[in-house]
Amino acid sequence: SLGSDSAKAERMFRLMDGFLKNDSISLQQDILRHVEYTVARSRFNFDDFEAYQALAHSVRDRLIERSHDTQLYFKRKDPKRVYFLSFEYLMGRSLSNSVINLGIRDQYADALSQLGFEFEVLAEQEGDAALGNGGLARLSACQMDSMATLDYPAWGYGLRYEYGLFRQVILDGFQHEQPDFWLNFGNPWETERVHVTYPVKFYGVVEEENLNGEKCNVWIPGEVVEAVAYDNPIPGYGTRNTITLRLWAGKPSDQHDMEAYNTGDYINAVVCRQKAENISSVLYPDDRSFQGKELRLKQQYFFVSASIQDIIRRFKEAHSNFDEFPEKVALQLNDTHPSLAIAEVMRVLVDKEHLGWNKAWDIACKIFSFTIHAVIAEGLEKIPVDLLGSLLPRHLQIIYEINFKFVEELKKRIGLDYNRLSRMSIIEEGAVKSIRMANLAIVCSHTVNGVSEVHSELLKAKLFKDFYELWPQKFQCKTNGVTQRRWIVVSNPSLCALISKWLGTEAWIRDVDLLTGLRAYAADPDLQQEWMMVKKVNKMRLAEYIEAMSGVKVSLDAMFDVQTKRIHEYKRQLLNILGIIHRYDCIKNMEKSQRSKVVPRVCIIGGKAAPGYEIAKKIIKLCHAVAEKINNDTDVGDLLKLVFIPDYNVSVAELVIPGADLSQHISTAGHEASGTGSMKFLMNGCLLLATEDGSTVEIVEEIGADNLFLFGAKIHEVPNLREEGSPKMPLQCARVIRMVRDGYFGFKDYFESLCDTVDGGKDFYLVGSDFESYLEAQAAADKAFADPSKWTQMSILSTAGSGRFSSDRTIRDYAEKTWGIEPCRFPSDG
Ligand code: KOT
């Protein structure tokens, strides 16, 4: 009975002496207890890494308490929940973020110093959780932080890859990839839920059976793999709410193996078991080139099937009628990668729950929403029909059925316009017949979101024009945002303190719009002075890191000019490097007396190239070759340095971004769906040098064109410029390309194909045609930097205008307009 249950709970609570305490002595005791009993080291003898592990475990205990409270509360209130399905999450480190969100960072720092340790030093011991490629994956991580902070009843679902994104190692200037076996030393943040497992089925055949006089399809699978849940707590800031990121790992299934054992082939059976773990073993490192590999499809279904089983189980615990499903469940598809969920929901509702097709479809159409991050049709995922048919035969049938009904309906609406019908069909006919995952997602979702204003407009005007004309109300915009907790509070504590001091409150950490309050002081010499000091401190940290990584000493008086992001032709790191060569060439050819007028620069480039992306790898090599030349030229000295920061990841970003004066977001217009790096730099008072692409257009709206350096062709001009081709190649660009071709930086044969992309007749990414305008923007940046007060004012206005680019704003918008969910806050002060 309830009475005895609560009596039992009460007794337990007393035995445990209530909740964990956060005073300095309790924290010290907890850390030491974990040193002794969890890490199993003597409390008299442990190193920094062991201290970090014990510290992390003590934080984990506190997270678990809160996550239990949150889950229990959600269960009691039973609100509509959102389930965020993403194939990738770039969480980075958890320690600092957790203690800050828990509101006990200072207490921990104090406890540690009593024990003779420094919080910052231990925090450095933690490796990154890098279960994703780039922007899309870090966006998921930022959005989880916002969902927790804003008290939304949300769950994240994903895959627990054993190998995250490869580590980038540079040898002789060339990128090499090394495996990131990040679980080597255990992962204190996750909890394995051995009882939360689901069978996931593959292969086999579909047979028609007769069930109480009705025909139904039964899938007899050929392979079963068990999915086991690993829960990662996501604490909100200024709230007790702590939500869960549930990641699935593959485990051998006993169901499947019985047969093998019975046939007597014991050794082979054990070896086969091992194969199950392969499903979740490695993250695909190509962000966007689509390859149609079976393992990838297996990963997608594995993740989707386990998540849907979990969601339906939770629903059924409290409800018996699927009519209520759309009132209790919203499913968010983060790009097309999880969109097999649509077919899976249909399969479960029709084949397992025995709902009629129309009813099931009606439910599916009410629960799914879809966000797309791609810009061009070539980036869209297509799954060969043969592959899907062999791996998931029942799902192929279901997708055909969905498509048949959709096309029938479409014919009624638009008539027999066969071109349009074939463009909109979920099935693409052709040499390789395939499933267009984006079309499937659009057909079933009630909302299709782009990730910036221009991107959302492009979707309507180009990529999904046909669908927009059919269902204009489906198409919306949710401009991306990033979390100020990670990107200011965790990564830039001095700026955080400065902002709070001048605003007279820390409330902006939950209510980022308050940052606009800084505008009033942008010209105040006192704030400017303090602002410059903060930047100096962060540049110092970065300079130390650069020297440790590359041996290059850089001057703190120079402008730190940063471009860090995945290496892609469209992001135009090549334009940046050619610009640097031009700058170098100018300095070399200058009268010595003129050199004192040059604004000194430290150019910093970082990012990973997909392992098979040859041109991107050549860009990395070119960067190193040019750096080698410039950094060793005594003529140039501190006027120009170029450094490549290896293995750019979340924790490196936390160091680099606060230390940047200028950052470059220079994609060919129309190619960057949004861009989120720019928002992190903006928050940290870094000025942007950018093209009018993605979310930069909205950044301009917020801070004004005077406060950043814009250049280059606009989106609508790009097609014409492409037509014109390289006759428009400016002399300055031709000259620097010539230097590379002539072997000025060595490796002339190797760089040939890279140079061809610019002057080979196509210049698809308009490096040549944007070159002059790029140099002008760079000159304007130099000029502004020479006036520290002006520059600092622009910097303050950048931070002040960054509020719109918080993921809190994005998530609130999703919750209200797309998911229809409301906050569900555990009643306490956090
Ligand atoms: C992945 C697969 C297919 C097509 C595109 C992608 C993709 C896009 N992966 N990451 N992105 C980036 O997503 C970010 C978050 O929305 C954007 O800011 C950025 O512009 C995309 O390139």
Automatic annotation (TrEMBL):
Its cofactor is pyridoxal 5'-phosphate. One of its GO terms (biological process) is glycogen catabolic process. GO terms for cellular component: cytoplasm. It catalyses: [(1->4)-alpha-D-glucosyl](n) + phosphate = [(1->4)-alpha-D-glucosyl](n-1) + alpha-D-glucose 1-phosphate. GO terms for molecular function: glycogen phosphorylase activity; pyridoxal phosphate binding. It is an enzyme of class 2 (transferase). Keywords: Allosteric enzyme, Carbohydrate metabolism, Glycosyltransferase, Pyridoxal phosphate, Transferase. Its EC number is 2.4.1.1. Belongs to the glycogen phosphorylase family. Allosteric enzyme that catalyzes the rate-limiting step in glycogen catabolism, the phosphorolytic cleavage of glycogen to produce glucose-1-phosphate, and plays a central role in maintaining cellular and organismal glucose homeostasis. This is Alpha-1,4 glucan phosphorylase.
